[in-house]
Amino acid sequence: MSSRLTEYITTTLGRFAAEFPSNRLPSEVRGRASLMMLDALASAAGGVETALAVSAREAAASLFAGKAASAWYSGNSLSRVGAAYCNAAATSALDIDDGHRGAAGHAGGAVIPAALAVAEGQDFTGEEILGAVALGYDVALRIAASRKPERIDHYNSGTWAAYGAAASAGRLIGLDTAKMAQALAIAGAEAPVSLPTGASKRMGSTVKEGLAWAAVTGVAAAERARAGCTGPDDLLDRDEVYDTAAMVADLGQEWEIMQTYLKPYACCRYIHSAIDAIEEMRRPGADVRALTVEIFPAGLNLQNQPAPHSLEAAQYSYPFCCALAALQGSDALRPMRPSSLFDRRVLELAGRIDLRVATDFADAFPARTPARVTLDQGAGPRTLTIHHPRGDVANPMSRQEIEDKFRVLAEGILPAAVIANVIAAVDGLARDGATPLYAALSRRTSLNPPDLAMAN
Q1: What does pLDDT average to over the chain?
Q2: Per-residue pLDDT averaged across 276-296, rounded?
Q3: Which of 88, 211, 335, 355 is geometrically suited to a Cys-Cys bond with 215, CB 3.0 to 4.6 A?
Q4: Is 90 within the bounds of a domain?
């Protein structure tokens, strides 16, 4: 038990999420929340026709029937928890949604679908929605980043992203401090329980990191707290598990959403430094004689299958992603297509990549995910080290790059006019309100989508 004598941490965070004045939200934080929303909607556009997202919508039609909120880009309506579930599944499907170094995972894949599902059809201003998103990020990321490394047995984001979904939903439905604290306690107690890293040899399933169910858990926790349900409100006051002082330090002054990274490639963030290095050194069309990839120790915890059985498994494979980038360029990961899983040249190269740990990267993670790549395409080996991949806080992507990411991911899935409407609606959310955004998201807009199903 923490030595804090005044109140439980759920109450401290609950007060922050429930009572922080909207007019005190810094403009740069509101702008960052807008950028995260645009990135999430881009990620969902790319993922909406994957097997993960399609199966989520089909199941939700039975499990979460209703007409309260939209399953983005599909023309379908569901209950609020159903929409949060489907949209979180689509957002996280390609593993191209935002992340955070300290948390070592993704907040936006649960927080933004939860917030937008709760707000749809309600009388919220755009600024209120963006504020709820920023507060949800802060709560989730503070909790995740304060975990003590020795007590972390996996980095699946759903376990802690549910706190952020509950905070965003609770803010929008008007929970007071006491009920917000209970919402956080409920969400934390009932968040998805994920297998420890390495417990399964089938990492490439459509369960992924539990973000879809985290969104459901958060929305349900807020509603249940409003109805009088209670949770174990001391669950964060465990000094053996959390750095409790860090969790609540500088609330309302330092915003964790400002420390989020964005992803240009549809694969685990661990792998991005290696892809950046390969992209800078490769000579298109030249054979690859040898490829060595030196990484930080945690990178070996990925399954790293040279011949992955699905797109999801490919997203967690250094050898496959690096071989694909070396032979076809980084655009082949924006996103990966099922046909790449059967490309004999890619599979052959993936099978002979030398993947090893670099001793000088031993203490890099989670603050950094560096890679040192040595590539030989016949003119002698060349070596490049990348410490901060594209999209990191130290190497940021611009808003224009996120708009371009949207267009690339949605090509062949959404009409250009719809993409433009979503981008414009997010840009104008604080000024024009949410009606244009929901109008763009709620219509069936899919064209003839590319094959994004899992390989068998």
Answers
A1: 93
A2: 97
A3: 88
A4: yes
The last residue of a domain, from among 229, 244, 261: 261
Q: Is 109:92 a contact under the CB 8 Å cutoff? A: yes
Q: State the residue for tokens 């933004």.
A: 112
DSSP symbols for 49-76? TSHHHHHHHHHHHHHS--SSEEETTTTE
Judge whether 442 and 70 are in contact, CB under 8 Å: yes
Q: At what angle do helices 51-63 and 80-92 cross, to 10 degrees?
A: 170
For residues 112 and 120, give the distance between their C-alpha atoms in angstroms, rounded to a whole number.
12
Residue ending a domain, choose from 331, 359, 386: 386
Residue 208's pLDDT band, with cuts at 50, 70 and 90, is confident
Of 312, 316, 344, 335, nearest to 450 by C-alpha is: 335
Please give the C-alpha separations between residue 368 and each of 104, 354, 411, in angstroms, as whole numbers: 10, 21, 32
Give the pLDDT of residue 193.
Answer: 81
CATH number at residue 165: 1.10.4100.10
Q: How far is it, in rounded angstroms, from Cα 266 to Cα 96? A: 5
Q: Which two tokens stand for residue 424?
A: 């414009």
Considering only CA atoms, which of 193, 192, 185 is closest in space to residue 237?
185
Q: Is residue 442 part of a domain?
A: no
Compute φ and ψ for 447, nearest 5 degrees: -90, -135
In DSSP terms, 294 is beta-bridged to: 356, 372
Instruction: Give the C-alpha separation, 428 to 426, whole Å.
Output: 5
* pTM assigned to the model: 0.93
